[in-house]
Amino acid sequence: MTTHFDEEDEGREPDFALDDPLTVILRPSSAEYLGPPPGRYESIRRGAHRRRLLRAAAGAGATCAVLVLAALPFRLAHHDAPVTPTVPLAPPPASSSPAPTTPPATQAPTPSADPSRTSAPTTEPSRIPTASASASASAASTARSVAPSAVPTRTR
Amino acid sequence: MLKRSRERAASELFAAVYPRLAGWCRRLVDDDETAHEIASEAFTRLWARWTKVAEPRGFLYVTAANLVRDHWRKLERERRAVRRATTEEAIRPPTEQTDPSVRLLVQSLPERLRVPILLHYYADMPIREVSVLTGRKEGTIKADLHAARELLRAHLRRSLDHTL
Prior knowledge:
The complex is a heterodimer.
Chain A: H1 21-26, H2 40-80, H3 115-118, H4 127-131, H5 137-155
Chain B: H1 2-26, H2 32-48, H3 56-85, H4 100-108, H5 111-122, H6 127-134, H7 138-163
């Protein structure tokens, strides 16, 4: 089947007969122009500008989301990787300095460090040092030093 | 500078094409306001992607035709809903103020034939430009135009016979 072209001259439309109903369709008369309402051009331009901005923002957001999604596995993989074991600190060699010389017990509250006790009621001042927690070495030594002095008094 | 020249080109295009495009839409829809809405939407879509459109006139007409078809579909859905809601059989469909012949053009032609008709006859594009825009050979465009005209003629004849 051969197709008949009735328009061959430089891409121009064919000449329709005036009674051809196609003329009505394909050749709208100039009377059918519809002028734009006032301000329509500006409103269309504004709308197009807004739409362009929205599209750009959406594009940027999508790009960021894709980048984040792409980077996330790497980041998670980095976090999940087994931590390289750190070499434990070696115990101090035996020949080194001995254990701490000042045990915490020695730094326990001493009578002098407790001002409230020193300023305690003075009804029995002599008993307080011996009854108190005399774990400190100094207190013990003073007690011992007092004892010999009492012995001779009895012998006399 | 570039922005100013682009603005001037947009303004010139609007002045040259809008009245004709809106008038064409007016033949297809029921009222002036809808025609303005469709023409405005076509221009908005054009300018939202201004730099990417090679042939603005063609883009405008094809976009407007698609919008008109969407409008018809929406109207048809509404009518069906009304018909369902009011079971009245004798309900009269809204009076059609559209030009049936132009409506036929947009409604009856398949897209493959409709686009060349729109571009060539309404957007005033020579066949060469239509061919470039649609990516088809000039011979194919001519054949499509011919087929579209024959189809329209047949439809028109049938509708005329129907009314007589």
